[in-house]
Design goal:
Helices cover 31% and strands 27% of the residues. By secondary structure, it is α/β, with parallel strands linked by helices. The protein has 2 domains: 6-274, Spore Coat Polysaccharide Biosynthesis Protein SpsA, Chain A; 279-360, no CATH class. The strands form 4 sheets. The protein has a 5-stranded mixed β-barrel. A 4-stranded mixed beta sheet has the order 12-14-16-17, with no helix packed on it. A two-stranded antiparallel ribbon has the order 5-11.
């Protein structure tokens, strides 16, 4: 039964983009960088959303240290921002935002989007989103699955089950299970079976139905947020919210809710999607020379292959290297073997433990 619910977009804009370091920093993370199409990922996301939902139905959830930059960049009003006292993963962020939205309009259909994805074929994206809204009205938690094009080991996977609904080459399935990032051989099996999709991390659901799942699987958080709801707009709100975040579990919505709930659906995406997860994504958007090199800035190279160079000030010269990442920023130079770049997060943890280098994070 259709409820004619209002539709909201919830954009999660608090990521730190560690796999884009050193271009992405704690104070200016990946979603603010103008690396693709001469525009920031955050601004591109807003433009995409604004084509089917006006600004008053857009909510951006960010930690307090990114709130001003987000507000200024997107020209948001106070009502568009939901400010977290600290970053604590997606489960609490989405649950908190759902409380704000239901306080505003009783219930709504919500599309949840990361702020740092790139999507082509936008007409197809809008068709998939409207299709997902229809499925969500029937009390499903809906995600979008991307048809794999290669045996990716950097994405989570969704195994599809029975078909729920089809319409004009769009299809939606029950989710059989979610699978963590697989090893290469297993990823090959997934690709060949044609029953697995990449997990895009984008969702659609009714706020009320999602909050029922929070109540079921995260009861303490649910009770805390329902108490907070009574004090929204009052002097007690900020302190109460801070206390809730202090004790809340640092867990993703996938682990906390989706992997446990029953009515999970996946729309098979007909649009092109890229989560531009790391600096290596530059290879998909910048033209390579005849030796497979990406050159951004004043770069001069000889006998150099399959490397990524980035500089905005000093020229960079290279002779006789292969499979390298070299990023020149104003305050540092980062050099890395491309085959070792998957260790960047552990490398940054080491830097974080050294006071001498914390200012570069």
């Amino acid at each position: 039964m259709k409820n004619n619910l209002k539709k909201y977009a919830l954009i999660i804009a608090g990521g730190r983009g560690e796999r884009f370091w050193p271009l992405s920093r704690f104070k200016k993370p990946k979603q603010f960088l103008k690396l693709f199409y001469n525009e920031s990922l955050l601004k591109l996301t807003q433009k995409r959303i604004s084509k089917f939902l006006p600004l008053k139905y857009q909510k951006y959830i960010v930690p307090k240290d990114l709130a001003k930059n987000t507000k200024d960049l997107l020209r948001l009003k106070k009502n568009n921002l939901i400010i977290e006292p600290q970053s604590k993963n997606t489960a609490i962020a989405i649950a908190l935002a759902s409380i704000y939205i239901t306080k505003e309009t009783n219930d709504a259909l919500i599309i949840v989007l990361p702020a740092d994805h790139l999507i082509k074929n936008q007409k197809e994206f809008y068709r998939c989103v409207n299709f997902a809204f229809q499925i969500a009205e029937e009390d499903y938690l809906v995600t979008f699955g991307i048809v794999p094009t290669y045996p990716a080991t950097g994405y989570g996977y969704i195994e599809i089950d029975n078909l729920i609904k089809e319409r004009e080459n769009l299809s939606c399935y029950l989710v059989k299970r979610f699978i963590e990032k697989p090893e290469y051989e297993r990823a090959k099996e997934f690709l060949e079976s044609k029953r697995f999709l990449w997990n895009s991390g984008m969702f659609v659901w009714k706020a009320s139905y999602f909050l029922k799942q929070v109540e079921k699987f995260m009861p303490t958080l649910y009770e805390d947020l329902k108490l907070l709801e009574k004090y929204l707009g009052s002097k007690k709100e900020k302190k109460l919210l801070g206390n809730i975040y202090e004790k809340a579990e640092n867990i993703s919505v996938d682990y906390a809710i989706l992997e446990k709930a029953e009515r999970i659906a996946v729309v098979k995406a007909t649009f092109d999607w890229d989560d531009v997860g790391s600096i290596l994504a530059l290879e998909r958007y910048y033209e390579k020379d005849e030796k497979g090199n990406i050159k951004i800035g004043n770069i001069f190279i000889e006998e150099t292959e399959n490397s990524i160079f980035y500089t905005k000030d000093l020229p960079v010269f290279s002779l006789g290297i292969k499979d390298l990442i070299l990023i020149k920023e104003k305050d540092l130079l980062f050099v890395c073997d491309k085959k070792k770049f998957d260790k960047i997060k552990s490398f940054l943890r080491i830097l974080k433990e050294n006071k001498k280098y914390q200012k570069y994070l």
